[in-house]
Amino acid sequence: SSHPQQHSTTDVPAVPRVSSAGMNAAVRAVTRMGIYVGAKVFLIYEGYEGLVEGGDNIKQATWLSVSNIIQLGGTVIGSARCKAFTTRQGRLRAARNLVEHGITNLCVIGGDGSLTGADIFRAEWAGLLDELLRDGLISEEVAKANGRLNVVGLVGSIDNDFCGTDMTIGTDSALHRIMEVIDAITTTAQSHQRTFVLEVMGRHCGYLALVSGLASGADWLFIPESPPEDGWEDLMCERLGETRSRGSRLNIIIIAEGAIDRNGKPISSNYVKDVRAAGWEQKVGEGLCHHPRGASDSLQSSKMGMEAVMALLEATPDTPACVVSLSGNQSVRLPLMECVQVTKDVQKAMDEKRFDEAIQLRGRSFENNWNIYKLLAHQKPAQEKSPFSLAILNVGAPAAGMNAAVRSAVRISICRGHTVYAVSDGFEGLAKGQIREVGWHDVAGWLGRGGSMLGTKRTLPKTCMEKIVENVRKFNIQALLVIGGFEAYEGVLQLVEARGQYEELCIIMCVIPATISNNVPGTDFSLGSDTAVNAAMESCDRIKQSASGTKRRVFIVETMGGYCGYLSTVTGIAVGADAAYVYEDPFTIHDLKANVEHLTDKMKTDIQRGLVLRNEKCHEHYTTEFLYNLYSSEGKGIFDCRINVLGHLQQGGAPTPFDRNYGTKLGVKAVLWMSEKLQEAYRKGRVFANSADSACVIGLRKKVVAFSPVTELKKVTDFEHRLPQEQWWLNLRLMLKMLANYQISLTEYISGKMEHVTRRTLSIEKGF
């Protein structure tokens, strides 16, 4: 049967002491998945305090208990620090409360303290039951029936300080908040010529400071893992003075609250401000937990919540307590105590002033961020001038993050000594000779800009091949970096296929996929799609809110994406939509009828509103207008309908932190790869490259950054619909349907694997 047998077990999402955006999405997913698989689900209010106090703090949940909470910040079930739970006596009371409800599965959402507490509780469980039995507080049968406690953790901590996990719940939202503040400050500072010192949360972990420094192009950065050299004060003032003399009106200094110097002495934001005699100091602190979420927090939390329930169902007496995490876009399970151990090792390394080791223990991705930040923040003269010149262009529709990629590609090329040309207006500009050499400072301030500063067009090379070849020859371009959507990929493919005719095109080419549609083959994520999902999510949240006054209303929202349903599906999960119609998951009139009936039933509950997403090209005949007419007439007297077409809103304004960083990293990795290929293809003073692997798409595939030859990708592309033939995100649709209360078959669900966390696994090159 598609519905597992009724389990006698019961799952408990308990939220201990910290709160971060995205937690509600996790509470919702765990609750609904638990009910879905036939378990009784209890919500424990006020974290471990509620567990110890019992009574009304432990309530059985229904499907509707977690309705309409996905868009709220913080956590609806509350969280509190709890002294009592740190004592055995407190844990004894907690065990008794659980046993009284027949609860033997615990899902804990919190930071490392909360998760360590859960593991101790699990280890003591048998002993605690023996003691309750001895004192006559529980019967022999009850002790037998509840003999084992399973624990699974979800890491909720905004400063991403938990080792082994890529991103903790709340980190993405915290970064959104910091970037909003920085963007606002930037505008003020442009007018006033100021230096800003910005302090961000992170007592022991510099992750938020580091990523926001990378995403804002900050001038100076203090993180606890890598204190500045002695005498940094003079160096910093000198460095900031240089940027001023070049006409920059703004300096940003970012400092993690746990920043220290080489001797372990704290560096405060006030001290930095006094050193600089700087304009303003701004603290971005406590507000960080409690603000609206980033879309990626909702999506990740929902995925992890579903996986947590599966981990509890599949637990045996031999499985260790695990935390559920995402690696790239795959769910994984990690032994809780291994993660806690490495997290402690980092702190110990910092205490003992072994700073290089601290950075390595944070994981490869942290180390990469730090190295890329240092590389791009300040110009260092190239060791030697290289013989190569490289041209950069944007193709297709504008996508957020394009400018971040151009900026990092320009700067890393200059570090390598290459000559860099910027091309305006895509392939058309390349044909018309709109080509100019650019320097380090020409791309200053580009990171946070939306759209495309170079200008972009959809024109394909085959319409102007002769002229393109002429300019490639005239400017002696030996490498082409094309940042854009499906046309960028198709265009490079056309150039490669014309190599037989034009020797000038035997050069190195690389495509950085950048499109809100996420429809470029060779990558799981295109640059700009995160910003688009966030823009669509914010619009849908507002649309939902407008209905909170009017009862019984269904919104039909049309999203962009061409034939690709990624935007609809992921936005649907992030806002808790009732359905998302996409081209890749064919639907018939029967499905539409079932959805209308589903909404009719929903209107009989307390919720009384619905949200349905429709991708713009999901069906030739079932248009948005058609759906509106169908829903209106079928729902007559039960609910009314409204249409919203999101349109170009989805191209988003300023890029999200994810797109700024992803663009920055792709730009760096693409140029490093191109430099290597140029070296290989350089003979007798010229570049000649005509092998398949000299023209690639760079992309994130599962967990790693990969380069795929465009000629290979041609075999797996549906050119008519401008789509890759296989798309990983289709398996997310299972979750979308389950969370909206449709019957699904869990046989298609792929459980995460248990992976170990060691120094070796932390050093593996990850995509992000």
From TrEMBL:
Gene Ontology CC terms, in alphabetical order: 6-phosphofructokinase complex; membrane
Enzyme Commission number(s) of this protein: 2.7.1.11
Chemical reaction(s) catalysed: beta-D-fructose 6-phosphate + ATP = beta-D-fructose 1,6-bisphosphate + ADP + H(+)
GO molecular function: 6-phosphofructokinase activity; AMP binding; ATP binding; fructose-6-phosphate binding; identical protein binding; metal ion binding; monosaccharide binding
GO biological process: canonical glycolysis; fructose 1,6-bisphosphate metabolic process; fructose 6-phosphate metabolic process
Family matches, as PANTHER family: ATP-DEPENDENT 6-PHOSPHOFRUCTOKINASE, LIVER TYPE (PTHR13697:SF14), PHOSPHOFRUCTOKINASE (PTHR13697)
Function: Catalyzes the phosphorylation of D-fructose 6-phosphate to fructose 1,6-bisphosphate by ATP, the first committing step of glycolysis. Negatively regulates the phagocyte oxidative burst in response to bacterial infection by controlling cellular NADPH biosynthesis and NADPH oxidase-derived reactive oxygen species. Upon macrophage activation, drives the metabolic switch toward glycolysis, thus preventing glucose turnover that produces NADPH via pentose phosphate pathway.
Family: Belongs to the phosphofructokinase type A (PFKA) family. ATP-dependent PFK group I subfamily. Eukaryotic two domain clade "E" sub-subfamily.
Annotated protein name in UniProt: 6-phosphofructokinase
Lineage: Eukaryota, Metazoa, Chordata, Craniata, Vertebrata
